[in-house]
Amino acid sequence: MIYRAGKTAIWFAIAFGLAACPAERFRHEKYLCKSVSFDLESIIVNDTNIGGEVKIIGYGSEKTATIKAISDDHIEVEASRMNLELDRNDGSVKISRGTRFARLACERSIFTM
Description:
The chain has 113 residues and is α+β, with helices and mostly antiparallel strands.
């Protein structure tokens, strides 16, 4: 009887310990756009907090940008001369650079660990 209660307590402790671990330790969102006119090949988001850095990879250049606002549906990013709005549902990206505006249909991939 004591053996069964001890065994149950051990299994309960293991289950509680596993449930307390975060389900997602690392998240990597990548938006593959391939827009030569905006010098935008891909956008990589690793830190999904306000103020987090986003890597913008162009053709021959690489920039970092800052997340200004984030929700479950959108990420707003501000770079040096460019504002981006990433749609987390369909992968589209709205770009505004000066007087130029565009909406790109990008491929979105997510890797979590």
